[in-house]
Amino acid sequence: MDPKGQRVKLNDGHFIPVLGFGSSEAKEVPKSEALEVTKFAIEVGFRHIDCAYVYQNEEYVGQAIRSKIADGTVKREDIFYTSKLWCTFLRPELVRPALEKSLKNLQLDYVDLYIIHCPLSAKPGEALLPKDQNGKLAADSVDLCHTWEALEMCKEAGLTKSIGVSNFNHKQLERILNKPGLKYKPVCNQVECHPYLNQSKLLDFCKSHDVVLVAFGALGSQRIKKWMNKNHPFLLEDPVLGAIAKKHKQTPALVALRYQIQRGVVVLAKSYNKNRIKENLQVFDFELSPDDMKAIDGLNRNIRYYDLLIGSNHPEYPFTEEY
User: Fold this and answer.
1) How many Cβ atoms sit within 10 Å of the Cβ of residue 95?
2) pTM passes above 0.85
3) Choice among 55, 114, 306, 317 that is catalytic
4) For residues 296 and 99, what is the distance between their CA atoms, to the nearest angstrom?
5) Model pLDDT for residues 250-260, shown as the tens digit of each residue
């Protein structure tokens, strides 16, 4: 059990810790630094590690997990590890080899959760972001329901305990949920979610289908060049968030994380700063009042920092739908 014991039951019976350590990072950080910070995150109490093939640091994150198992800090079953199927591997025949490649990089026998990173299927090949002649994502035509069937087979083969999706709108999620012959429902939909984009409609939809919403970008922008819209206000400087933080003698970041946990959202905290990594665990040390929650709900303005505009011409571009 993780020190704080805070877990949510998934629709397949497995449990996911409500606070996760996000291990994607800005390009200027050397990938090897993922080894150091992931080890540190496990040492201070994180048990849920969120990563992905496309971050290109899984060998370091895997090394960190294995070293913390080797020194007796944790057992493998104490760690909840998520990896993600990248857009260039959505063809059904590419799914299992992609997961096996992640497992080989990680040197692990299984992942706890494997999710479709994004509904935008892209041309297979060496390039992670294949472009067309207009500089947009070079689309591949794949039925996401067929991709899903390949994920179900990975679960049955024991390569992953649970399967889910990410960056899906409710119609795309519904397509999987209503698929004839569905064996396993997605356990989660991991999406950008923070007080400026609180996803309340998508959250209600997910809850009604027993699908957990996992929040990335929970602290607003951390400004990743290719994917980000940099013209938006900086969430952590919001005066309402600041006032609530002051009242609780906490930081605005902790208030933003706590907000998600109290609304039943699993939240990822991404930092390569050791003080902040440790501080993020204080999310369990205080509680927001109903008035605080209401005030934070009132901040919603549908600001999307990760707008995936490179894929905006794709037939599966998820953000044309309201939710």
Assistant:
1) 24
2) yes
3) 55
4) 38
5) 999 999 999 99
